[in-house]
């Protein structure tokens, strides 16, 4: 197994390893490389049991721990597995900065979320239809349902009450001819809005659920940012009108 996954197999103070041995009836011996050996990438787990069924169960559990972060044999009867299909562009949204979003979802809802690998790369031209990523969600029936709802909210509005408590979103109708004044030269204006008002601003694209500009943040900050965006549009409209009048007359 990957040496980096040994900690998951052992668990806090060896609790996971002990649980596996009790649940499967199989003895597990972990042979991990030294922490000082930076070149070693693989470790081994030796399985010993009198019955073949015990070996099969232990091997399955270890593979689950390595690939999913949990083993079904160690879970309660109410435990289940499901998945939600998402565009690969939203995987980073689900994980969040330094893993904060996925940690909040897993801790609050007592679920395990598995992020699949993907070949999709942002800011590149994609040939053909993009393959959707299946994000695994495991836990209680209620936890899975709430987690899937939260992930849907993250994809649509870039926040959820569970992962971003206190955040709201508002849509702003911005005609496409005003996009340039919201974005600014080399993104200067939109960076100013984000930094000054402490909000996130999302311009509509082909995957957006809305054609409007989405502003996300604390309620007061969102209101101020929207007022500023309206000011930018009014100022741009006035400049166009003035230029037209000067040229006409």
TrEMBL record:
InterPro entries: KH_dom (IPR004087), KH_dom_type_1 (IPR004088), KH_dom_type_1_sf (IPR036612). Keywords: Repeat, RNA-binding. It comes from the Eukaryota. It comes from Amphora coffeiformis. Residues 1-67, 78-156, 166-234 form the K Homology domain. It holds the Pfam family KH_1. This is K Homology domain-containing protein. GO terms for molecular function: RNA binding. The keyword Transport does not apply.
